Q: What sequence folds into this?
């Protein structure tokens, strides 16, 4: 049976204003061993006071890695998804992602997430934006290869939710093993795609998965007119995307996927995340996976 990691994105605790260490404590209490935070470059008061569940690149990555080990938790990836499709993709996005890659290598994170913008870039034609992103990813992957960190492209925006453009993006650096896909089950759905067909097309590129359900009300109001969901306000399994997630898990299992499933939901300070975790563990077992636990945990 293929083994799979189960974790969550710490944005589940954004609205409850918890710290990253509180997210680690929740993971330990619920026997979760993988975590995915956003990263910021620099410092801000809300982070310093412990009201922000993500991490700063100013924090020492080796010391943070040791602290996480005491909770039995490691990174599945860190989220450095500054949109790379706009004019500032090269000047702001690229150095931010490159710094995140070097930090990730010391922090023990095997992946760094990236993405495009939610909307058509202002002042750029589609081909211009794609060419700009190709140059950006060339610079990013040059650093990723040196540090042996996988860079994932998350399905989240104007380009990445369109399958043909996403295929072009995943081929920006030839067959480099360091450029892979972060499939987001909710974003593919809300953009109007069939998530199962979408996943099937890119099955051999998927390295990390965001498990995100969608409420009926949100689907009714914006599906086909949006490209991404900031945060899902329904537990995994309780929305209209549950059956798609179930089928995707079956396809991943049949293909021998051994990455990490990272739950993305509002969390409600823990209860909604706990409901998502309970549902996902049942579905993972039904799909033929066993849950992987790091050796140190």
A:
């Amino acid at each position: 049976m293929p083994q799979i990691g189960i974790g969550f994105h710490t944005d589940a605790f954004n609205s409850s204003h918890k710290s990253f260490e509180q997210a680690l404590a929740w993971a330990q209490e619920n026997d979760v061993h993988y975590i995915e935070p956003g990263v910021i470059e620099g410092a801000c008061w809300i982070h310093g006071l412990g009201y922000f569940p993500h991490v700063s690149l100013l924090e020492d990555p080796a010391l943070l890695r040791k602290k996480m080990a005491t909770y039995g938790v490691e990174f599945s990836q860190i989220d450095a998804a500054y949109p790379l499709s706009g004019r500032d993709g090269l000047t702001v996005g690229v150095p931010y992602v490159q710094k995140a890659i070097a930090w990730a290598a010391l922090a023990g994170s095997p992946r760094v997430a990236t993405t495009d913008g939610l909307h058509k870039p202002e002042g750029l034609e589609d081909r211009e934006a794609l060419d700009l992103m190709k140059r950006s990813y060339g610079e990013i992957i040059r650093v990723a290869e040196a540090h042996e960190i996988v860079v994932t492209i998350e399905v989240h925006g104007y380009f990445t939710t369109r399958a043909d453009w996403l295929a072009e993006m995943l081929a920006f650096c030839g067959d480099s093993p360091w450029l892979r896909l972060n499939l987001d089950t909710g974003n593919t759905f809300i953009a109007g795609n069939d998530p199962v067909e979408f996943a099937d097309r890119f099955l051999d590129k998927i390295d990390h998965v965001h498990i995100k359900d969608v409420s009926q009300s949100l689907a009714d109001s914006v599906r086909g007119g949006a490209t991404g969901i900031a945060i899902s306000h329904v537990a995994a399994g309780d929305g209209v995307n549950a059956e798609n997630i179930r089928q995707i898990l079956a396809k991943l299992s049949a293909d021998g996927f051994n990455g990490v499933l990272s739950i993305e939901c509002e969390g409600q300070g823990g209860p909604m995340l706990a409901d998502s975790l309970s549902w996902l563990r049942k579905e993972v077992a039904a799909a033929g996976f066993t849950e992987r636990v790091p050796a140190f945990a």
Summary: The CA atoms of residues 125 and 131 lie 10 Å apart. The two ends are 21 Å apart (CA to CA).
